[in-house]
Specification:
Helix content is 24%, strand content 15%. By secondary structure, it is an alpha/beta fold. A four-stranded parallel sheet has the order 1-2-3-4, with helices on one face. α4 links the parallel β3 and β4. It is globular, with a radius of gyration of 16 Å. It starts with a strand and ends in a 14-residue tail after the last helix.
């Protein structure tokens, strides 16, 4: 299935993400507006994970409902490392289709970048360097975390042409000493 829009790593409701990724203040509202400006009611959106991480001490049912009703389009989500089981249950209840990473037309779609010699579209790294295990990889990587797409969904044509996002070639890798996920391989 081809999607109309692609995006990753909104972290809606995540209180600490602004500091972690140097996001502007009150970015949730800006991201929702930019989503509405791009995505039509009948459009499909492939989200590559880390959709939301709400504060579970608030009226979370109301929060989820308000958020999802403000975002047009049919959302397909490949879960990320912050998409917890209770988050996924809420998203499914509100009409999001949760799917597994997949390859289509030679392009691999997943949350985290993985070693490949092909083309991979992913999120996870936000506006940071690539993981050390990709150093020397011959793959073509396209990071579409919202920080590198101006906080809006983008088209596959723009992703593959390198007009949006960033790539391994653009930003480089962490070292084995600075990569917290490095496992010695």
């Amino acid at each position: 299935m081809t999607y109309d829009w692609y995006t990753s790593d909104h972290h809606f409701g995540h209180k600490n993400i602004t500091a972690y990724c140097n996001r502007p203040p009150n970015i949730d509202g800006t991201m929702a507006k930019r989503w509405r400006d791009q995505v039509g009611h009948d459009d499909t959106v492939l989200h590559l994970g880390d959709f939301a991480l709400p504060d579970w001490r608030v009226d979370v049912d109301g929060w989820w409902s308000d958020l999802m009703h403000s975002l047009p389009g049919k959302i397909f989500l490949i879960p990320g490392n912050h998409d917890r089981k209770k988050n996924l249950a809420q998203l499914k209840r509100l009409g999001v289709t949760v799917i597994e990473p997949f390859v289509e037309n030679g392009v691999w779609f997943a949350h985290k970048p993985q070693p490949t010699e092909g083309v991979m579209v992913h999120g996870h790294i936000h506006n940071n360097l690539y993981p050390f295990n990709l150093k020397g990889s011959k793959g073509i990587y396209r990071n579409i975390s919202v920080e590198v797409t101006n906080y809006r969904p983008v088209t596959l044509a723009d992703i593959l042409a390198g007009r949006v996002g960033n790539s391994l070639k653009d930003v480089g890798c962490l070292t084995k000493d600075t990569d917290p996920e490095y496992n010695g391989k």
